[in-house]
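Table S2 (text version). Query chain:
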Amino acid sequence: MDARLWHEQARTETLAAPTPKTIAQLRAMSTSSRTRYLSHRRRWMRSLHFDTPATRQARQALTDLVEDNLTSMPGAKDVIAVTAPFAVGKSTLVRTWAQEQYRQIIEDRVHHSQVPTWNSNVGVVADEVPVVWLDLGAASKIRAFNIQFLQYFGYPIGGAIHDLTARIHRIVDAHRVRLLIVDDTNLLNLRHKDARDVLDHLKHVNTVLGQRGASMVLVGADLEDGAIFQDPQMAGRLRAIRLGPCSIDTPTGVAAWQETLASIENLVLPYLPAARPGILAGHHAPRLWRLTQGYLGDLARLIAEAAYIAAREDTWTIRIADLERPQLSRRAQHATPRLRETRAVKTTKPATAEAHAP
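Corresponding structure-token output:
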């Protein structure tokens, strides 16, 4: 990732939704027209990002914390950590939010094909790069962190570590950095003899950003189990946002799951003209959770593929068989049989007890 690619992705418009059609209109289409329509419909459904009450709350928390850092006194600011198990969608959520922040900052310049610029000094024009996104590699240390930061802007990466760090100071000012997001923070190598130096470097970069009202966001899997959360100085400034798959263990969780499915229905039901309202949030809600265990990525793929099957087979609604056919992630495939087995045990125990009752 670099500033040019980030700008290009942020300015790319989402795929336009196809025009909803009735069953009669769909069946009257020529084979080629219907094929094109269904292809567009499938790609549009696969591009959707589904929301939950928890993800909406997380985005608002990110916005509030960044705003607090921008308006508070200069100095080391709160570090924002977004942590979750693998495959929950934390990087997708933060990326979507960060691109919206980017568009708000550069405003109408997002429509330009080139990275926006500003006059940093008299006669000096520099790229304006308010959002920096770093994808850390395995076992990253200070040098790897600095190199990725410099490469994002297209700067030379040679030199001693302290020289690279000094360049970061100048870059933050020259390019008006407001937000540094470090994805896959769990890959930072904090298990070697230089772990303290890596943590100190993160704190130093946070101070550099904080002196300018900018924020650092750390994104990673299960960060609360690692050294970043255990370090007293870092933990004192951490503001954690914890995400997880949708749970149905409580009435509140069930309500949130149904609310999530209802919001999805609002998007996809116009493209399932034979489906009745409540088919996802009511009829299929338990089955959708069992198949996906509340992971939004699996849920998005499952609904898009089931809707595509229904279109190909000219039923225009989602049936139980349509939900059982798509191939989901290995995680979902392994978990679903265990849930089936658990459910079978729960339903057979009462029958056994009743059979032996005097």
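Notes on Table S2: The first helix runs from residue 3 to 11. The beta strands are 79-84, 117-121, 124-127, 131-135, 179-183, 215-221, 238-242.
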